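cache lookup: miss for this entity combination. No prior model stored, computing from scratch. Input as submitted by user K.M.:
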Amino acid sequence: MNWDLLIIQCLNGLQLGLLLFLLAAGLTLIFGIMDFINLSHGSFYMIGAYFCASITNLTGSLILGVVISLIGVLIVGALVEALLARRLYRNDHLDHVLVTLGLILCFDTAVHFFWGAEGMTIPLPPALDGQVNMGDIVIPTYRFVIIIAGLLVAGGLYLLVNKTHLGMLIRAGASNRVMVTALGINIDRLYMIVFAIGAAMAGFAGMLIAPITEASVGMGNEIIIIAFVVVIVGGIGSVKGAFYGALLIGLIDTLGRSYLDDFLKLSMPANYAETAAPALSAMMVYILMAAILAFRPRGLFPPATKS
Amino acid sequence: MTGSQTNPPQEPDRDTQGKSWGKVSGSTTVYLGIIVLLGFAPPFLSLINEPFYLDLLSRMLILGIAALSLNLILGYGGMISMGHAAYLGIGAYCVGIPAYYEIYNGFVHLALAIVLSGIFAFLSGIISLRTKGVYFIMITLAFTQMLYFTFVSLEEYGGDDGLVIELRSEFPGLFDTENNTNLYYCIYLTLLGSLLLVHRLIQAPFGRVIIGSKHNEERMRSLGYNTYRYRLVCYVISGILCGIAGVFLGNFTSFISPEMMDWTHSGELIFMIVIGGVNSLFGPLIGSMLFIFFEEWLSGITVYWHFIFGLMLIALVLFGKGGINGLITALFGERR
């Protein structure tokens, strides 16, 4: 067993898990509080990456890029909520799926129109571009940046949800929406804030990943499906569930891709294992979700009560 | 779900039930007229020398069958599947993989497609149908993703890059599918058969149970129906029908890849149903025809046509409840 490789892969899994959490946290809140399926949540991820790439290239400062883009994505999220999503909360899920699918087409095409079909890179400042040596292990510094930033946002969200007045309303909304309205809370404003915060977190995930993969049209469309898996696995409406679900899925996906063929070789001939492993490892997160739903139909951490 | 509030399922059924022609409603007459016109399309198109439009019509009808099959579970049964493109993929690969081994017999392709889509629908249905609402949407999507990645990893059959089908399915002694007109009629007849099948299913007690359990499952259960089992059978029939559409799609496009199973394509099938009108027998066909028409037309105007398409989709949900079926019914009347 190569322990160095295992540590590196675990860090990769942690990184993927935290990115997934940034996407899934917003999704699960929007899902849990407004009962709204937002397939276009991945578009905020893409827009965040493009905003950040443009502003960083323009100003030369990554920090300025991230800050301005965060405000930009917040505004885009609030606009989408006010102009579109708000009209649909009372409709059924089919309408949500269709409208947000239409929105994906609009956002993807708009990005294609303004930024062109080719991807955009974000240059890293030299301080973040290096490597960290830990014994025999060499890890790019930027991976730590992603992990630390992800953990900070997760901690901030925990404090926001559990320690503030707004968080109290969010938790109340997730467990009993009707009661919150009955108590005279301005539910429209709460919805807009939740939607915009969710969008900003998704956008932040896009900004974090863009220096590694580059910003590209449709980059959100694949990861959003995995983020949905995280939401379902964790339990709709539960931020805690989204956190543990995201880490679980990030680790399983990463470790599956690197170790599944060795694991399969224990029980079957090597050539079969090498054919089966790539397919199986890509499917693992979905298999996990199907298995969890078969035994716990409401996910691992369903919110306490839901009307 | 959508439109069910404004359009209770008993209504459209009662008027399509018409024992004699005299009782057929105005809207059904319009639809039957379109179907008859489609039957005369190939000679007409060869007369005006526009063979390209036959290709377009073939694609419309193939996706019409697929949308019709999805409507069986989505429109009538209220099961919103976000993974129906899987069956198009299964059907297409049931042509592609045998053709790779130089097996071109169309009966083999069809039999494979029916059996394999049936098995996939059965296995995924057993688990999916235990869930409701959002969970059902996501789990059907997950199963399709699993299939997608399976085909991506099958490097023998092209993996990500897909597979070129050199020759179409052969039906020795019957007709030659290399001729586009023959292929068109083959699709056309299958479409007629599927329309009849769905119509009969919905009229039958079986369909009543499916519609009933969409509106009030508790009540159907307390009446003694095992709604889970009814839904599973309905889900499998729908999958098989879409698998057959996939066989035609494989024959028609002659290039297949896992991309056919992408989740956005499942979304497009739902889109087609909603354009035409959920809860209507002919709606999915009309929807798929309009969908492909707009796709073809807009993509000829600008490369950014998806933007207009997306706006249309949003506008349809916000303002166009009931789809084209609602429009035609309003214009020509529910009953004469």
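stored under new cache key. Chain B is about 70% helix and 0% strand.
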